[in-house]
């Protein structure tokens, strides 16, 4: 993912072409075609320039007139034996090593995806808890206006957590002022939802407030793509910031620390029911634990680097040597009268088919090696991490705006922190304070 695509998404949040929302990375077809063309050009070079290469000392043919004869048959046999032994060792190393590393890498990607989804589900659960279970219907504590800003700050911290976690697992020691960014973001969102659209571009925002008549909902404007764009801008900040810390990054720890502080303040001031606090506290701990578990599968952690590079280099050696080893297939088309000619002679269509077959084999081998590296880097090229980050931010946006805000007949749970009357029933449902009706609307 290039920075220009991220910037394009920031400028036009509704565009889905530049950034895909599925976690599966792009297929290897483009890389395979590039490698195929590279090896085909390599085979064509060997076929066309083999006479010039033999004059430089690179003998493509087993029986070449320009190749110096060995003194004895034993020397030729020893040379062939040594070459065969080296190729056998390289092929064995690549076959066994690539299969083992692919299997281990696949397991690592699957385990990393499980942790990523655990982080995602925990963030969504916490966002729902902050939106739906905090209330101003208490004798003390934060008022409605102040509580809205704090809830939006918690949501911004939750949207920023996967971005900071991803950069930390990639070894980025940049530490932008995430806490201050989230505070500024929460204040901007508060002004937007109150109807002030001067703080941000209009395509992030829809002015019409949605109201369910008679249900006691606080009127607010719908802000689209807000946390999604915030996550993208935070990614750009991590990539553009040149200042790095000497020690490891602690951005994720700062986010968890601030979430715990806000949560404990809500509990102490009565903005959260004591019966719900153990569940929310446990989810914050699960989020911190799942984030630390994700770091185990990052490429900067414990990986067999020497083994990976040995298999990689041996595989490329085999891919490059395969056309040379079968060079006789590429030059048998040369007529006898052109054997000693300086002019370049292009191969026939039949020889080009042989070149294509050799190029496909070499391209397949190098594509498997590239897939091996991708498997061992699940947070780099192994998965589409943009889909993970934007998926979390999109869910937070949808919960904040209500998934089914257009359905005025559905019984939805109100955003209690926005209106003290959220726990009161509409007269149409019997606002008598009965527990059965209250359970439907709370």
UniProtKB/TrEMBL annotation:
Keywords: Membrane, Transmembrane, Transmembrane helix. The chain crosses the membrane at residues 29-48, 86-109, 296-319, 349-370. It comes from the Eukaryota. The keyword Transmembrane helix applies. The keyword Transmembrane helix applies. This is Uncharacterized protein. It comes from Tolypocladium capitatum.
